Structures are given as C-alpha cells and as structure tokens.
C-alpha cells in the first residue's frame, strides 16, 4: 500500500495538460481545503448536541474525516479513471492538512509543532500528489522529446518510457485489492456483536455515510449554480464519493491512542465501514444521475 497508493496518484498526472482539467483541479483543491473548516464546527452542533463534550469532540472529528485514501481514492480511479484519481488526490491535500493538524491537536491536547507540519507534507501519497501536480502543470514549459506524431515533456514516462510507466501502473493497480483486503483484515479484529448493539455507532454511521455527502452535494450545487466555483460532473462525483467514505483509520487511532472514546471510535469504524460498503452502489448511481444536471456540465 505504501508503494501502490503514491504510484496511483503519480501516474494519474502523466496526461496532457488541458485548460479545463487544470481549472477543475484548482476548484477541487479549493473545496478540499474549504470543506473541513465548514464541517468541523458545524457537525457537533447539528448532530451531537445531546452528547457530552468529549463525545461531541470525538464524533465531530470522526464524522468530518473519512477514509478518503484507502476507500475513496481507489473507487474514484476505478469509476472515473485517471481524472478521478487526479481529482481525488488533489482533494486529499486539504484532508491531510487538517487531519494531521487540527484532528491531532484536538485529540492529543498538544500544541502545533514542526513535526505535525512534517506529517502533513512528508507523506508518500501527499508527496506523489504534489510532485505529480507540479510536473503536470509545467509540462508545456520544459524540454520536450519528439516521439511519433507528438512532442512531450521529457518526464512524461507514459510516452517516453512506456515500459517504466506500465510497471508503475501495474503496481498502482494493486491499490484497490490491497485496500479492500486491509479493510477486511481490520474489520476481522473487531467484535461485531458488540458493535451492532451500539446505537451511537449506527447514528454516527448514518450521519457520516448519508448526511455528510448530502451536505457536500448542497455546497457543490450552490457553488456551481451561482457560478462562484463551477465544477464538471467528474469532479462533482469524485468529491461526493470521497465524502461518502467510512471513518478515517488515523482518526480512530487518535481516539484510541489518546483515550478519547476509544470503544465508541472502534465500533463506529466497524459499523461505518459495513454501512459504506453497502451504500456505495447507491452513491455511485446517485452521483451519476445528479451529474446530469446542467450546472455540472
């Protein structure tokens, strides 16, 4: 997974640069950075006011941060190809920034330090995304190599070194099956019967898998309808699928490591993963139908 997921992100940027995709990528980057400051203060107030302060804090973080890397990224790639992976990778930049800063500080009670900033960016997936994005944007301004019928940037290995690119694609293709095996292995370690009896875990899972994507749809539709930040149907569908993922494993690990509602976090992880797996076909069909709206074309 450490190799496959970065390569999945990097190889997605080995495509020709076009203006429309570039504009959409910056729109996705904006939403990836904007959605978490919206969700973090809003969700505890909307959904968890009747819980204790510690439960509000933990449930708010668990609801805001989904498993966008292991669950969302491979699915986006399987459905929408390289554009889906590209948009999902760019969207994840904001996710990583807030997960390793706000979520960590809130759960641990520590202050922001240099090591937290390092965690945000010195991460194989984030590095691969940033490197791929920069290479993709600069490809028309660097030395080129002439190949049959076209000239491409010297680092466009999909054209210049196809044998290496095919090897990278082969490894990147392992991301989806490995992710699902990892999810299954993680679920096998949790007591199913106890989790199924936890009403809060079910309530959380409904909020995370159903209501958070609906909030994302409403925000994206408002931005496109008012022409403040217009997005196309692939960007729209990718971002909604990314938000319809179960709880992030890192967020659950924070809860366990710092002893903040660790049992609740574990139960929420199990139920939300099962819930998300069952709800996935519904969301794929839904975003395809909604993407036909004129505002997403």
TrEMBL record:
Annotated compartments: Membrane
GO cellular component: membrane
GO biological process: transmembrane transport
The entry's keywords: Cell membrane, Membrane, Transmembrane, Transmembrane helix, Transport
Name of the protein this chain belongs to: Malate permease
Superkingdom of this protein's organism: Bacteria
Main subcellular location of this protein, as a coarse class: membrane
Source organism: Fructobacillus pseudoficulneus
Membrane topology reported for the UniProt record: Multi-pass membrane protein
TM spans (from-to): 24-46, 58-79, 85-105, 117-138, 167-188, 209-229, 235-256, 268-291
InterPro entries given in the database record: Mem_transp_PIN-like
